[in-house]
Design goal:
- By secondary structure, the chain is α+β, with helices and mostly antiparallel strands.
- The chain has one domain (3-137): Beta-Lactamase.
- It has helices at 8-14, 33-39, 51-54, 70-77, 129-147, 157-160, 176-179, and strands at residues 18-22, 28-31, 81-87, 90-92, 95-100, 103-112, 118-127.
- β4 (90-92) and β5 (95-100) form a beta hairpin.
Length: 180
């Protein structure tokens, strides 16, 4: 198959990773179907709008310092930037006004024109909430097991412990000449 035969826009549109294209000033140019589905928005709700007008910035950290996003980092650096894990709660599409706890892994890639200037920022987001939720469940189970009292010992405690050789102290070790 030749590159001329591939509809790259169609690939962008149906790609399973949520993707949006933004101007260097962070205004939406386009977004694929997955991005729209994850955000619960229509394309018309995005085009020409600043990303933070549509998707508000993260709250400052407990110290009051603003949290930088991968978008801001890529905008400032002109390099590919990513955030491995970000909690960004979003409105539940089935229950308007109700926020759902969600976790994301994001990356932003500046796309340069022939003149070397950034023309577009490609923003990709993968929801990793199911992985985080499963990890949290496993961690809770582990914490419960560690907090549970140990079962009552029945019989000889020494017989219940696995036999592990005790390391000998240097004075207990025999040299080859002492074995003769």
């Amino acid at each position: 198959m030749l590159a001329e035969e591939i509809d790259f826009y169609e690939i962008f549109r149906i790609h399973p990773t949520a993707m949006a294209l933004l101007t260097p000033d962070l205004e939406f140019v386009d977004a694929n179907d997955e991005f729209l589905a994850q955000a619960g928005l229509e394309l018309e709700d995005l085009i020409g709008k600043n990303v933070f007008a549509v998707l508000p910035k993260l709250s400052p950290d407990p110290g009051g310092h603003p949290k930088w996003t991968a978008l801001e980092a890529a905008q400032a650096s002109g390099r590919r930037e990513g955030m491995v894990l970000t909690r960004y709660d979003m409105e539940d599409p089935s229950s308007r006004g109700v926020l759902r706890e969600r976790y994301w892994s994001t990356s932003v890639t500046p796309v340069r024109g022939l003149d070397g200037h950034v023309e577009v920022l490609e923003f990709s987001a993968r929801e990793v909430t199911p992985i985080i939720t499963e990890y949290q469940k496993l961690k809770e189970q582990e914490d419960e097991q560690l907090a549970a009292p140990a079962p009552a010992a029945a019989g000889n405690k020494a017989a219940q412990r696995p036999s592990v050789p005790r390391p000998r102290r240097p004075e207990e070790r025999r040299t080859r000449s002492s074995r003769r």
